[in-house]
Design a protein that fits this description.
Layout lengths: L5 E7 L5 H8 L8 E5 L4 H11 L4 E5 L10 H11 L5 E3 L2 E3 L5 H6 L3 H8 L4 E2 L8 E5 H7 L10 H11 L4 E2 L6 E3 L5 H21 L12 H20 E2 L8 E2 L3 H19 L3 H17 L1
Parallel strand pairs: 1-2, 1-3, 4-8, 5-9
Antiparallel strand pairs: 3-7, 4-7, 6-8, 10-11
Helix pairs in contact: 8-10, 9-10
Length: 293
């Protein structure tokens, strides 16, 4: 393997990337061509800035808190990327750390990622694209325009969607994963939930044709959505619903239901009162629509 053709980008807002650098040293390939982007937000901007600094044929984006379950992860990621189409990408899914507390296990355990690891097919949906460990050809990343820096969060799914929209595929290696350590407190989890849902709303507004989430482009839709989520709050305490299940299943999940309900409010708020950067995008779309008429 031509290891010199692999460049690694690590966004680290506080500049503390020693742990992930130690992880790179433990990998089976030489991971010395890396850059740490400090003090830059959002993460999408940090990743784009890092990509511009690197010269490798292949790019790997790794979060500053990433831990691998095997020393062969990055070697096999690059091997997979080389064996796939020029417009494809490889992402590694995650699981909670072994030391997760009760809140993390109840709130942040995501069945989508469990499904990906246990499945036989390494091709996954763009909705499961994860920037914690993501590999792509440099020229293809440049052609796509990189990550969207106007998105609060969800820029990884947005890039995955643009890849598949252009005919590419997203792959994962089911036997590898990274450890993820979400907020350990109620306050931190609330903040993270609002951050995620704000980005989800922006992603849905940007790509309405993707059917990523419900479209709330009119106030009456927002009111109806919140009404239905309020009515469904109590039933969802006792029912587990996701798009991979044909029918709901019984599951007592009061914490998950409560945070999901709060997320619905955050999602709706971003639709009704978009952030500054998103206001510019919304106004631009509206002006373009009027011009076409």
């Amino acid at each position: 393997m031509d290891e010199g053709s692999v460049s690694i980008v690590i966004p680290a807002f506080d500049g503390n990337a020693q742990d992930v650098i130690s992880e790179l040293k433990g990998q089976s390939i030489n991971c010395t061509d890396y850059v740490v982007i400090k003090g830059t937000a959002p993460a999408a901007r940090a990743r784009n800035l890092g990509a511009k600094k690197m010269r490798g044929k292949y790019l790997i984006f790794i979060d500053d808190d990433t831990k691998f379950n095997s020393p062969k992860v990055l070697e096999d990621v690059i091997k997979t990327l080389k064996s796939r189409g020029d417009q494809d990408a490889v992402t590694i899914t995650w699981q909670l750390t072994p030391h997760s507390n009760w809140l993390q296990r109840r709130l942040w355990k995501d069945p989508l990622f469990t499904f990906s690891r246990n499945g036989q097919d390494a091709q996954i949906s763009w909705k499961e694209c994860d920037a914690a460990c993501f590999a792509i050809r440099s020229d293809w990343f440049d052609a796509l325009g990189g990550y969207d820096e106007e998105l609060t969060s969800g820029e990884d799914c947005d890039l995955g969607y643009r890849i598949t929209k252009k005919g590419g595929k997203i792959h994962t290696l089911p036997y590898y994963w990274t450890e993820h350590n979400p907020p350990r407190t109620i306050g931190g989890s609330i903040k993270k939930t609002f951050w995620y849902e704000k980005g989800n709303a922006q992603m849905a507004r940007k790509n309405p044709e993707a059917n990523y989430r419900i479209n709330l482009d009119h106030p009456w839709k927002a009111v109806l959505y919140i009404f239905l989520r309020t009515v469904a709050f109590l039933p969802l305490v006792f029912l587990k619903v996701n798009y991979r299940q044909r029918w709901p299943s019984f599951s007592f999940r009061p914490i998950k239901s409560f945070f999901s309900y709060m997320g619905a409010w955050a999602y709706t708020r971003e639709w009704l009162f978009p952030s500054n950067m998103q206001k510019t995008r919304v106004n631009t779309v509206r002006m373009a629509s009027k011009t076409k008429r």
